[in-house]
Amino acid sequence: MLKRFLVPEEDRVFVSEESVRYATQAIFLEMGLSERDAEQATDVLVVSDLRGCESHGVSNMLRNYVHEYRRGELNPKPNVKTLRESAVSATWDADQALGIQVGPRAMELAIEKAGESGIGAVAIRNCGHVGMLAYYPMMAIAHDMIGFCMVSAGGALQVPVFGSEPVFGTNPIAWAAPADKHAPFVFDVATTQVAANKLMLTRRIGSKLEPGWITTLEGEPVMESVDSPDYGGFHMLPFGGTRENGGHKGYGFATIVDIMAGILSGNGPGFIAGRLHHSQFVMAIKIDSFVDVEIFKADLDKLLEKLSTMKPTKGHDRVYYAGLIEHEETALRKKEGIPYHREVVDWFNGISDELKLGFSLP
Amino acid sequence: MLKRFLVPEEDRVFVSEESVRYATQAIFLEMGLSERDAEQATDVLVVSDLRGCESHGVSNMLRNYVHEYRRGELNPKPNVKTLRESAVSATWDADQALGIQVGPRAMELAIEKAGESGIGAVAIRNCGHVGMLAYYPMMAIAHDMIGFCMVSAGGALQVPVFGSEPVFGTNPIAWAAPADKHAPFVFDVATTQVAANKLMLTRRIGSKLEPGWITTLEGEPVMESVDSPDYGGFHMLPFGGTRENGGHKGYGFATIVDIMAGILSGNGPGFIAGRLHHSQFVMAIKIDSFVDVEIFKADLDKLLEKLSTMKPTKGHDRVYYAGLIEHEETALRKKEGIPYHREVVDWFNGISDELKLGFSLP
User: Fold this and answer.
1) B243/A2 CB distance under 8 A
2) How confident is the model at residue A2 (pLDDT cuts 50, 70, 90)?
3) Which residues pair with B91 in a beta bridge?
4) Per-residue pLDDT tens over the stretch A306-334
């Protein structure tokens, strides 16, 4: 994550993984989730915070989820229905479950199918926010599989190249593969220039947006460095930004996501499905179906070794590959705790008092 | 394709699809390919030219292929071996066949497997140039499937973000899905800022490269507008360009391609496999495994309708989606012929004389 998204040092409160897990799970249980689901949803959020992906951890997301449960927009005890199923595929209706509650189960099923058939995929319609996408393909790599995941997240944020109206959400894509000696490759990006949650983080932190990240409400690219406007006061550009700089590539990948998650699941295009009905596509590919796992991992090690030990260009300390910083950050945060903004810790303690949950952070 | 890549009007010679097919096939037959393979390889090139994707049509590619056959780098009569196979997957060693000769067969097999099992994928190691990637997923959409394809194309061109050495080729990705009333979604991009072939096109055409497209041989981004240097005089940046503008996204997708095509096929990372040993991954997904084909196509129509009829931003005539221009261009070129640079037509007629092939264009 870019430095602009980090919590300023003077506002940091370090909280142990264990404490934030306890607190988060207590809140999910209070919202009506089952023990298993509360534990699962908590894990997605805490793994996100451990990896330094604060934008998708408890800070930004948990209070939104609480609001959505309270407004009845999320169903804490969903009756997830299988609409179609084969040896390699399934389509689920999530019954308006939170995405981080139902998504991991879908990836478990994809992994099970890939274990038996070589490849497994599940398309989910009708769910809430899916959290840090990296979580899902990371589940696959633990089984010597390649995993990938896409989420169609409404249609009110991202404008197509040359377009004046938003049609897509941030429509993220994540992909992961296991190595042997090196930290796994774990890639997770929005198809917009930046994740929407990160824009909100800049507001808490007081940093600026880059030129070419957002558009006016008429779709005209904002080419100056500006403060993040309020939600509803801007749209977002696909990654790449302008056409000359490859904005059509971000736009194309956003469309792929709308097709693979939104349309293939039967949820429909994001701009029709709307804010409350996200959709997800997860796939697991058994490496052994194509090549020996040992050869695969040794080859991936060679690539990751080459990337991470290469001499950097001027002004840079090091060359990273996707997932490397997050892997190192996880080790550090498991030891030292997770640095939350003090305002987030206050929120946790406020809700603990309000709902008589009996915890106090840090 | 951007205007800078088009043949200038005064240099255009229009050739009918039929004539260029005949000429190209005659050359492939002379190189030693079987009738079936010559016809197949010709189709990939001519479909590329019909779509206006000149960079991957006969102009740039055919003379390279001829050189590679003559130098013995390509095997015109390959003994393609199946190394591993399941109901949903296969791994092939292409025996140094030209990619456009073996790739379509691999996609045929993926489609056959997807027809029976729901999903089918083939990884191919040890092949030559794979041509316009869009060709492969376009094969899938004719069967009411979603198709995608990735190619690891050596490791001598693309530098990682902050990196000083090239590790990847242009490592392109293509993805396609069928609609009902609208032209299909067909997405095909290099994970570099621009396809290497397009840089060579700018040399013939005399247009400039944009800032942030290439790097020096030390990996430092060239941030001015320059003429394209010779091959060997530059490296290329991942799409996005700088880190702030999302270069890590292009870099991540390039790595995915090296994993899915290079490492999963057993070809190895591109930087080890080298210039002559490309690798490919193709996948077909049967729509009907997840949702009714009619619902899928109707939903995709709604999305494509929304995109292509939206009011454009200032200075633009129209909003396009991936594949729309190419679909329209194909209709036009099938009627009016394909506008080649006169130098390309001269080359065809030269080789016809040299090898006594008996054709004369246009």
Assistant:
1) yes
2) low
3) B84, B123
4) 999 999 999 999 999 999 999 999 999 99
Instruction: Please report whether residue A182 resides in a domain.
Output: yes
Q: Is residue B359 part of a domain?
A: no
**Measured between CB atoms, does A240 come within 8 Å of chain B?**
yes
Interface of B with A in 290-329 (CB under 8 A): 290-291, 295-296, 299-300, 302-303, 306-307, 310-314, 316, 318-322
Question: If pLDDT is split at 50, 70 and 90, which confidence band does A5 have?
Answer: low
- What is the identity of the amino acid at B78? P
Query: 27-46 in A: which are within 8 Å (CB) of B?
Result: none
What is the number of domains present in chain A? 1
Neighbours of A188 (CB within 10 A): 26
Residue A211: pLDDT over 90: no
CATH at residue A88: 3.30.1370.60
- Structural domain includes residue B262: yes
Kindly list the residues from chain B whose CB atom is less than 8 angstroms away from the CB atom of residue A310: 160, 163-165, 167
Q: ipTM value of the model?
A: 0.96
pTM for the whole structure:
0.96
Neighbours of A80 (CB within 10 A): 17
Pair of tokens at residue B266: 């057993």
pLDDT in tens, A220-249: 999 888 888 888 889 999 998 877 778 999
> What is the extent of the structural domain holding B229?
3-354
Q: How far apart are CA A120 and CA A106, in angstroms?
A: 10
Rounded to 5 degrees, φ, ψ at A341 are -65, 140
Whether A361 is in a domain gets the answer no
